[in-house]
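INFO batch 0412 | record 1 of 1 | parsing
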Amino acid sequence: MKLPQITAIAVTAVEATQRKLPPEIRPLALAVPVHYEAAPDAGVLADGFEPDILGLFAGDPHGSSPDNPSPPQIILYLESLWDLAAEDTEAFRDEVRLTYLHELGHYLGWDEDELAERGLD
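INFO prediction complete | emitting tokens
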């Protein structure tokens, strides 16, 4: 499947996930832009991330008050997600949903242990 097609599937999966979020979290989630990229760029790899990274939260978590604020964003790496799903559309939707929720959890300030407690690891 071509990148525009898997991007459309991913967008639909994220939107469906956002609609199912608890009312107290939904406005926060809708405020964080989601970017869909084929693969991580050289800068992400230079930061030590693996080439098959599924997603990334960048920016400052909700409620933080840093001196130099960085706007939050969630990035989903579609080729890695598609490969992980073995090119199966339903599995891809599930991986997109889980990865989106994992990165949203980072935005909400949850660490890896808290994500695991919520089944988002």
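INFO post-check: DSSP finds six helices and three strands in the chain.
INFO record closed
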